[in-house]
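REQUEST ID: PR-0412
SUBMITTED BY: lab tech R.K.
PRIORITY: routine
TASK: structure prediction, single protein chain
INPUT:
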Amino acid sequence: MLTVGGAALLISMLIAFVGDAPAAAAAALWLVLGIAVIADLVMSRSGRKEITVDYPSEVFVGETVDLKLTVGNAPATLVGQIDWPDGISGQSDIAFQTDDQGTARAIIPCRAVRRGAWTCEHLWLMWTSHWGFFEYVPKLTLGAELRIVPNIRLVESGQITTSVNSALFGVKENRAVGEGSEFHQLQDFVQGMDVKSIDWKRSARKRSLVAKELRAERNHHVIIALDNGYLMREEIGGMPRIDHAITAALATAWAAAIGGDLVGFYSYDVRPRIFSAPTAGRKAFARLRSRTADLDYVSRETNHTLAMTELNARTPKRSLIIIFTDFVDTTSAELLIENIGILARRHLVIFVTMRDPELEQMVAKAPESMDGVAELVAANQSIDERRIVMERLTRMGVTVVDTEPGKVTAKLISHYLEIKAKELI
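STATUS: complete
OUTPUT:
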């Protein structure tokens, strides 16, 4: 429209500049242009846009789902944009495919990046008129609400259940004799059994050799401790650290529940927030899932001294405590190391933190400028300081899980199964 109007204005100026040209020519030009504009408006009229959207009501954080949009009475050249909320990441431009009946459809992939209930409020549509004189840009109400919840895909798939049952029950039940610490039953001693399993007192009463069958002790306390301070808000691998931690925590909690242990939950930041006493079975997992879904993204600094002191006071029985946290450097980690050391005197502690893949890629790549050299030095210093902290924790007897976000769950469950097999709790 601006191009045509500019051309008409330029011709009118030329007509006015040439004195011999009749003024009626300019008026006729604008009259023709006005008629064309009115005709374009009439030809481009369309009915009210009817929008339907199809989407899952619940999405696991970190996963990608499709929003399916359908627009009725749509023109052939229809594009759009959605106002994405903070918890959902999607493409900015939407291209619709319009059929012969005037129905436009689009499938929009979007990624859930933060927990909570997020609403896509508005949809912006845009199309040009029949002759291109106008652009229509209506703002329509979309109202698509997605509830983003902690990721339990591994639990739902049954992969963790199969692994734990195979590792604990499939092996322990067949090789229980002499390998556990909890008495199960007596049985006649036969050749091939471990001589150490013979119960000599009962054998003397019965006047035949009797062996004890032992099983691994169950009903241990497993505490999931989540640091929800501001450092856990940092995005790594496209999601905040706290969401990676929650995914691994839920998977481990399910493994512990399947393994016959009691699972508890503890969250903290500047002060202790939530403590759920260890509970057996799937109730513990359901409670943990509900608690983690309600955790906010806070900007408060973590007080490790207060948090670890409170946790130590609330867990008098020796337990397996899995701490998900992070730190910046050795200076900021001093109080963390000191308090975890106190906790490790009574309990078995697993310290879980996540590496930043971008930081490691920065170290592996040769710098191309002086700024790149400075970044490389800073990255190397950060990695060295993290390694020092991990070594100090290991010397205290703490099990350290320091890996990339996508590998945390597998390593953590592997450590849990190893602890169960060795009966370290």
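NOTES: The longest helix spans residues 370-395.
REVIEWED BY: pending
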